[in-house]
Structures are given as structure tokens and as C-alpha cells.
């Protein structure tokens, strides 16, 4: 998919890869990432990682909002807590 995207727009691909790297760093640092891929839309996501299972993601998106670190942090905290509960239930079988 990235190869096709690169052929269409090298500059856009470079920007996309930089955004992906920032999101990975955010997940490693904070447990979640927040992005605004579209105007007035904030998307926040956190992974669910368990040994022996595929990686899943929880995502929450809001429309008609301006991206703010405070809002991203609040939603990220909710998603991190929910992900922890999901992992607890999945581990206990």
C-alpha cells in the first residue's frame, strides 16, 4: 500500500510516515496516540496486546472539535483504562 502511495505523492508519503512515527512514539510513551487526519476530527487509539493473539486497537473519534492536547489526554486515559480492563478479562479467559 505504501508503494502505491509513494508513486502518487512522494511528499505526502514522507508526511504520512512522519505522522506514523509520531503516533508510534506516542503509544510507546503514553499508551495511546491522537491524530487529526481530517479537519475538525480527532481520533484517539490505544492497542490491546496479548501474547499469542493478534494486536487489536480501540479507537474513539470525535467530529466538530479542534484538536487539543487536553482533550486527547482525557480520551487517551479513558481508552487506556478500558484497554486494561479488556486485557484483564481476556487473560482470565
From TrEMBL:
InterPro entries, A to Z: GAF-like_dom_sf (IPR029016)
Protein name stated in the entry: IclR-ED domain-containing protein
Organism: Bradyrhizobium vignae
Taxonomic placement: Bacteria, Pseudomonadati, Pseudomonadota, Alphaproteobacteria, Hyphomicrobiales
